[in-house]
Amino acid sequence: MRAAGEAEISELLAGRPTRRRGPGSGDLLGVGVLVAVVGHFAAPGLLSSPALLAWSTVFVAVCLQALPFLALGVLLSAAISTLVPASFFTWVLPRHPALAVPVAGAAGVVLPGCECASVPVAGSLVGRGVPQAAALAFLLAAPAINPVVLVATAVAFPGQPELVGARFAASLLVAVLMGWLWTAFARPGWLRVPRVPAPDPSGNRGDAFRRAVQHDLVHAGGFLVVGGLTAATLNTLVPRTWLETVAGSAVLSVLVLAALAVVLAICSEADAFVAASLTSFSLTSRLVFLVVGPAVDVKLIALQAGTFGRGFALRFAPATLLVAVAVALGVGEVLL
């Protein structure tokens, strides 16, 4: 199965037509449109029900919010894959993985994007030979410590600069710890190395860049839709009154906001404003929400599974969630 997938990617990047092995994303989109049209005439009241309207609103919001940053990530990924020589990364990063992890994590401050952008970029880094742990540290740090996110957090929490500092410190620490944990405990085969486009024999890097963008955008976009569907479904099922009930419990408030950060899948540029609106929760529990969200949510898990393999996502996401909650609680106790 994997060999067949890699062969198809190679054919696509080489400009050759691929053999159809099953329904594609266009086919599924066509089926979805057909079902919506038939449903509109067969049961007109169903499509206008408040629950379905709320679900569709959340789904469209999640996808539209993430799509520009996903496109940015795909463009950067294609640039890294086709325009940047592999020797550049060996020159920039320290040779020892334990030292490369904090350097790569700190480099996340220069990418003004969300988690959707960081996944394809991290995939290109791994494909170009960057140590896996360093690429994963960048993946976790970039959505949470870049200037756009920090400024948005400061605007959402005016007069509380300590929360901005706590978010920066906790998010960077999570990224570095997860990189070091991956260095210490990861086994061969846990992460599927993304295939990097081969150099164009004609030397036309523009065509290679275009083909890489085309492939990555279709591939990652499909998993973004899966994550958006999951986020919309879970978002509409969580009663708002239930949140107010659990806010009074220190333990439950942390667990609930961590779970909401995972299922709501809010872009890291916007999550601070959601956290600021949860005034009944403590600052520490809201810090947990801000640290967990950019590190692990349903759309990010879907994107990671599509880029690095389902086995990777099943191992990496739960471990990241535990580390993020623990680190956010510790930093919150010290700084908030």
TrEMBL record:
It is a multi-pass membrane protein. PANTHER family: UPF0718 PROTEIN YCGR. The chain crosses the membrane at residues 28-47, 53-86, 98-121, 133-157, 164-185, 217-238, 245-266, 312-331. This is Permease. Keywords: Cell membrane, Membrane, Transmembrane, Transmembrane helix. The keyword NAD does not apply. Signal peptide: none annotated. One of its GO terms (cellular component) is plasma membrane. Its main location: membrane. It is found in: Cell membrane. Belongs to the UPF0718 family. It comes from the Bacteria. The keyword DNA-binding does not apply. It holds the Pfam family ArsP_1. It comes from Modestobacter roseus.
